[in-house]
Amino acid sequence: VKPMTPRCTVPKAVPVGKTASLHCHENEGYPKSTYSWYRNSEPISPDTKLNARFQNSSYTLNPTTGTLVFHAVHKGDTGRYSCIATNDAGFAKCEDQEMEV
After folding, report:
1. pLDDT at 58
2. Residue 52 — very low, low, confident or very high, per pLDDT cuts 50/70/90?
3. CATH of the domain at 23
4. Is the pLDDT of residue 26 over 90?
5. How many folded domains does the chain comprise?
6. Does some domain include residue 2?
7. Which of 76, 81, 85, 100 could form a disulfide with 6 if both were Cys (CB 3.0 to 4.6 A apart)?
8. How far apart are the first and last CA of the chain?
9. Percent helix, strand and coil across the chain, each to the nearest 5
């Protein structure tokens, strides 16, 4: 079963140095969806070491739960975030949401 449009929660504004938690979830898809996050339409790698653009960011991305946590946000983390839920039957994307740091 193709995933439904996931429900994404992105904080609107986060002070520099604080923790920011972004969530993405849908429960119609079967088999269970995995989640990937994008900032300004660029994929955010689950492995921070592989992605030069995000090397200064300290974050944890869990593709199974759809949770993206920035441990200490900085100005460079400002942007439009969106999430895609994917399974064998297809994928669905939530609307971009702005997060300002």
Report:
1. 82
2. low
3. 2.60.40.10
4. yes
5. 1
6. no
7. 85
8. 37
9. 10, 45, 50
Contact 33, 61 (CB under 8 A): no
| Location of structure tokens 């429900």 | 7
In a domain, 95, yes or no: yes
Can you say whether residue 44 is alpha, beta or left, with left for phi > 0 and alpha for psi between -120 and 50 degrees?
beta
Residue 15 has φ and ψ, to the nearest 5°, of: -65, 145
Structural domain contains residue 52: yes
pLDDT, position 34? 97
Average pLDDT value over all residues in the chain: 92
E strand or H helix that includes residue 32:
none
With pLDDT > 70 as the criterion, what percentage of the chain qualifies? 90
Range of the domain at 14: 7-99
C-alpha span between 1 and 69 (Å, rounded): 28
- Asked if the structure places residue 58 within a domain, the reply is yes
pTM for this one? 0.90
Residue with tokens 């986060």: 14
Six token digits for residue 63: 């593709």
